[in-house]
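Handoff note, outgoing to incoming analyst
You'll be picking up this chain. Sequence as last confirmed:
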Amino acid sequence: MDKVMASAAEAVADIASGSTVAVGGFGLCGIPSVLIEALLEAGVDELEAVSNNAGVDDWGLGRLLAAGRLRRMVASYVGENREFARQYLAGELEVELTPQGTLAERMRAGGSGIPAFFTATGVGTQVADGGLPWRYDAEGNVVKASPPKQTQVFETAEGSKEFVLEHAIVADFGLVRAWKGDRHGNLVYKDAARNFNPLAAMCGRTTIAEVEELVEPGEIDPNHVHTPGVFVQRVVALTPEQAADKRIEKRTVRARQEAQA
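Most recent structure output, in case you need it:
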């Protein structure tokens, strides 16, 4: 089945206001920036985004934030995004901060048909006990906090140990970016850009992949496929210019040796 769409705009056309969208990437590495821009241009709002973070102020999910399109974020950290922090503290955005490994496993579980799982991460903290601020009001008061979670003691190799129950995440849509993909939706990610992309692809009921290089079925060695086409419903081939537009979240340089001398 040929899953290639004519444009990013066509690929996101049925993402409605109020949808939950899982987005791949880590910082600005491997983010589906073209699909995010298409979603911005589509004008939908009240979105719930599930992603490691929310990009930066002027790129990635930060573009949707700045336009007031996000109602809720499920993320691991605020990162370098000042607008993300401002909206959260001003009571304009609901934020469920989740330990990074737990977030990854919640997404993987959603794509694997596992409704919930137990983990040791967060036991003895507000992650398990509840009370993490999810939403503030304009005066800085907590108006919505995380609920307490079920815990259970299991016997392990180290003895009795307490674990907390975490629920899987299944999103309406998954947006990912791949280095290479074929017309059947088989995807390959490159280096660190792999990050949360396979997980976002798995947990989306409808997954849309933007690919830097589109190849024909059979050109990708099956042993090299990171996301099988069964998880992907739509493919958008990027132009060379779009594929090359990869921004750096935080650039750090050191003085030249001759300048130091």
